[in-house]
TrEMBL record, chains A, B:
Reaction catalysis annotation: diphosphate + H2O = 2 phosphate + H(+)
SMART domains: DHHA2
Domain of life: Bacteria
Species of origin: Romboutsia ilealis
UniProt EC number: 3.6.1.1
SUPFAM superfamilies in alphabetical order: DHH phosphoesterases (SSF64182)
Protein's UniProt name: inorganic diphosphatase
Cofactor: Mn(2+)
MF GO annotations: inorganic diphosphate phosphatase activity; metal ion binding
Any one Gene Ontology cellular component term annotated for this protein: cytoplasm
Keywords annotated in UniProt: Hydrolase, Manganese, Metal-binding
Gene3D superfamilies xref list: DHHA2 domain (3.10.310.20), inorganic pyrophosphatase (n-terminal core) (3.90.1640.10)
Organism phylogeny: Bacteria, Bacillati, Bacillota, Clostridia, Peptostreptococcales
Amino acid sequence: MSLLVFGHKNPDTDSICSSIALSHLKNQLGFEAKPYALGEVRKEAQFALNYFKVDAPELLTDAKNKDVVLVDHNELAQTADGIEEANIVEIVDHHKVEISTEVPISIRVMPVGCTCTIIYQMYKENNVEVPYEIAGLLLSAILSDTLLFKSPTTTEMDKLACEELSKIANVDIESYAMEMFKAGTSLDEFSIEEIVNMDFKEFDMSGKRVGIGQVFTLDIDSILAKKDDFLAHINSTDYDVLVLAITDIIKEGSYLIYKAGDKVISDAFSVDASQGVFAEGVVSRKKQLVPNLTTAIKNI
Amino acid sequence: MSLLVFGHKNPDTDSICSSIALSHLKNQLGFEAKPYALGEVRKEAQFALNYFKVDAPELLTDAKNKDVVLVDHNELAQTADGIEEANIVEIVDHHKVEISTEVPISIRVMPVGCTCTIIYQMYKENNVEVPYEIAGLLLSAILSDTLLFKSPTTTEMDKLACEELSKIANVDIESYAMEMFKAGTSLDEFSIEEIVNMDFKEFDMSGKRVGIGQVFTLDIDSILAKKDDFLAHINSTDYDVLVLAITDIIKEGSYLIYKAGDKVISDAFSVDASQGVFAEGVVSRKKQLVPNLTTAIKNI
């Protein structure tokens, strides 16, 4: 019996890394197993694969008539085409479950931040050594899923796993995570105009035409390096006020580039406004950017 | 958070022993946990509890508003009343699953013969020593669920667990299992007539009025010790032919006490008939007792 191991469609770093790490564990325990991906590997996972020199899993097109292991998902809507005619032999996951089987199968679900935390546990339980590159991938997935332990889903078990894995993978947790997040959220392939319009909404505030764009990235430096180009584009628009918020989810705040009087921005976000200023705690357009600007513009 | 740990309604030996063993493991790991039973402890489990000097779990009447751990079952129909208002935090089971949760919880399901095999595995994974009496209960449950490894659900993992546990519990697997099965299937509290009529069916075979009773027990000796009393009762009935099959599921055959000519019994079951004769391989009334007797009676 050869096992196909895969995560969910539109795979994230956990889906990619957990399929590789569990396949390796199965191999060490004497089972034939091979990782697959149900979609293109995204930038963040690709960074981890490159860093630890591991090949990306092959793309799986059809699970029909195969013996499969599901990682990082358990709901049929998220899994491979042809799953109705596949033989699900095992599930390893950290999500809420919606599972119904005809026969007993192996199921391992734990309420932790990342599937890879469970898989690391399984290595330990089976006394199988975690090699350097597998440690690196497990670590990458846990840091990704827990957003460097900032996600409320983070548990002590996730943190402990990362501590141990970082020693095997020989990386500093903080700096490796930031490097990976930067690579994963890089906007390098987009133009100034594309970034401003990526998630852009228009509002009427006290008769003024106001536009607010927001992007989430951790590759802040390369955005701020082009601050003048952003500003030139923003100023060339015919909005009365335009604010581009570059939101850093780790620092939990947004860098602001704007077409507006400094006083409006200072009033709205309690900052000493200048182009590229960091507005601490401001991460939501709906709950912070829009109401704060509405009030500040009305009071000008 | 104090955990209530329990198996299914109408609890078998696995449900009782796995709730006690998992509670002990939780306690060793620093969690408050207590075993409960969803019904009266049956004779087999009571034998194991007596043998290893462990108190029976208290009866649980209502799980409402409690933090609960389900062992040896996962379907809501089999679990405690009030479960809809309970907080299920963990499931350890070896059955097919029908689980749907709102949030991620701990789930450990493995396709092995007994929940206690999984729990023994969890002791090892957590490096928690299995004490004598817990080893005895785990062993009892595995022998019970696998019917001393005769059940097709038995896996190598179940056998290996029993080997290791029998050393800690200081018992011989075969003889302990037989003693437990005897206690569990004892018919001591029933009268001769009750035993004959326990599962009794009447047939017409070539114009003869034929009755066939069947009981499953491993306490064969105490039945055969009363052979003459059974025979006196059987002969006093007005059936033309009456066969009582005392089926031994471990030896896979039935001891026969009968009102019939020896030749009919010899022909029907290829034995040298005498009262209490063992008919090897004969375990099914529908597939063996009825058709074989029908043919033998027709050919007399």
